[in-house]
Every structure is written in C-alpha cells, then in structure tokens.
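Mods, move this if it's the wrong board.
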Amino acid sequence: MAQAKRSSSNADLLINRDWCKGCGICIAFCPREALFMDEYNKAEKDLDKCTSCGVCETFCPDFAIAVIKRRLPTNAGNQTGSDARQ
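Not the wrong board. Structure tokens:
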C-alpha cells in the first residue's frame, strides 16, 4: 500500500471540507499548482507539490484552509552550555 508523502516543510496544510465552497481562489493563487478540485468540488492538495507556504490560506475567503506549524521535538534534558535552562 502506498503511503502519502509528508511535506518537507515544518507545517501541514489543512483543508476544512465543510467550509470549502469550491470557489477555486486558492487554486488560482497557489504558486506550486498543488491544489485542485476533487469530484465533490472541494479543494484538495497534491502532497507531492504542496510546501505549506500559506498563500492559499491568505486568499481563502471562507477560512477553509489553515497552515498549522508542527512542533519540533525538544531535548530539554540533553541541553548543555549557556543555552541550558536550570
């Protein structure tokens, strides 16, 4: 079974399909041509092309797209030097 490729960026692009009205504005502004309309006239992303840049989120009039930053794992117990917190 093929696994979906995850974007190499430190963020994920989420599309709220309930809020998407299929206007296509996000598709028109996507610099990577990573968005398309699915069979239900809802925006969908191409995992191979999307870099989660956020341009689509900026122009979506229905707030149906969000770029969520991933939390980076912290190694608080392994810090040394002047950056270590006591």
